[in-house]
Amino acid sequence: MENFIVSARKYRPDSFQTVVGQDSITRTLKNSIKSQQLAQAYLFCGPRGVGKTTCARIFAKTINCFNLGEDMEACNECESCKAFNEMRSMNIHELDAASNNSVDDIRNLIDQVRIPPQIGKYSVYIIDEVHMLSSAAFNAFLKTLEEPPRHVIFILATTEKHKIIPTILSRCQIFDFNRINIKDITSRLQFVAENEGITAEQDALHIIAQKADGAMRDALSIFDQIVSFSGKNITYANTIENLNVLDYEYYFKLTDALLNGDYVESLLIYNEIINKGFDGNFFITGLASHFRDLLMCKDIKTIDLLEVGDNIKQKYVNDSNRCSVKFLFNAIKISNECDFKYKASTNKRLHVELSLLKISEILNDFDNDNEIKEIKLAYNKAKTSKIESSSKEIETKTELKPKTESKSEKGNIETQTKPDNSIKNNNSEQITRTVSIKNLGITENETEKSNTDKTDFTEIGTDAIDENKMHEVWLKYAEQIQEKAPRLYHVFSINKPSLVGDTELLLKLENQNLANAVNSILNELMPFLKKELNNKNVSLKIEIDDKPKGEPIVYTNEEKFKEMAQSNPAIIDLKDQLNLDFK
Q1: Pairing state of beta strands 173-176 and 152-158?
Q2: Any idea which fold 248-364 has?
Q3: Exposure of 84 by Cβ count < 10 A (0-12 exposed, 13-18 middle, 19+ buried)?
Q4: pTM for the complete prediction?
Q5: How far, in Å, CA of 281 to CA of 340, rounded?
């Protein structure tokens, strides 16, 4: 069986040209070789897997090459290059500072640097993880690092530059390696896949590049893992399954539910994600990033900030057209707050679900709700026309007295024909306990159309009304308006009218707002009731029950004092003697 070589080693760069994502550093090193201005010490620092040790090896190989090209690349044909490629070069020494971090190890290194190179001009000492040296070892190394023999060059590499003492930093040329961007990693993975005869979807390579977090070595290791799982055909589905990555489609479906205000669907989607084994914190951070990417697509200048494949980028662009900037701002803010407080939350699942509910309500703001707007409009109409039409309504009620009246009907009419004290003062309105349909903002023409226009109900009879059947018809109408007016559905469900006399329905409501809400749909409600009950004389009276419930609540200090003084008047004398005041 042929020995397998991992891609991170097999495709490790062997020239400056093949180094990925560090163009400025490689160009600087090549220029220094070309001008023969080599420093005695270099410090390569940066995150893992970005090419620090690789560049150190290429640099050491290049400065010892006998036949440099015009582009300052090693020839790979001279004895020095062959020795390096076959890993038998005596000019390049690699040390691990993690296991050689004592003063004695540095003393041995100082003795070793005195020996000149056998082939080539320079002996290069690559010290990896140099920050692991002890303070005593650093101090012992200072003099040699500052003034080494002419044939010696030190290349120090570290992932934690801040742990190196300033006296070491001042003796080195410092090169900061950056994380490799997703585009460069994806391009390199595509090159490796083509060389290995592997078919790979572009979106799958993007997922691998994102998972690598800027490290080329990690990306190649993940690539080998996916090849072992998928074989010679790497697909997006196989990649997210093997790497346990949450599919973008979940976030797109969740966005649709949130934009529609469908909190039930959003909770079901989150439950499905939890059942797949994903952590709530991982989900909420991904959701915040998803909203961020949608926000980036709102302007053509920021679309390039998306680090996703072309197919998925197009989905983001399409979805962003449905989202307002205000919605995305608030959604990102809520998601970020949820992420910030996630670890401190006791019930973590409820914490995330509450955030989803908040996001689903962003577009259902009170002022943007058309249904609420209609109710508010009816209420304002009733409020402005109440005083002007009060006198006229009183006269109309007297004239429209029915021929046959029950005792309860007479009592109501007498109550309505009495002058209302609220008419005397236009600035201070009082809510009357019994409100007719007209008082709720319906004009005379609309009232006649819904109640007394016989031409619309010529085929409807005058059947006797059964109260149980009337309740069934009432709830039937509530079910019809459930989808288009859920708030009114709630009002109709918990408030049922009672039968007064033969044809009059009495509906008691808690406040004027509920009365206005019912009043706004009377033109539709009354024909429905007359038809279903088969009685064209059906009428509806709305009565407001505004009686105070329970004892009044005492809030301020002055109210509390008056409450106490009623039971104990001596408190008033005590207050005056001590000259106390309310604060």
Answers
A1: unpaired
A2: Zinc Finger, Delta Prime; domain 3 (1.20.272)
A3: buried
A4: 0.57
A5: 9
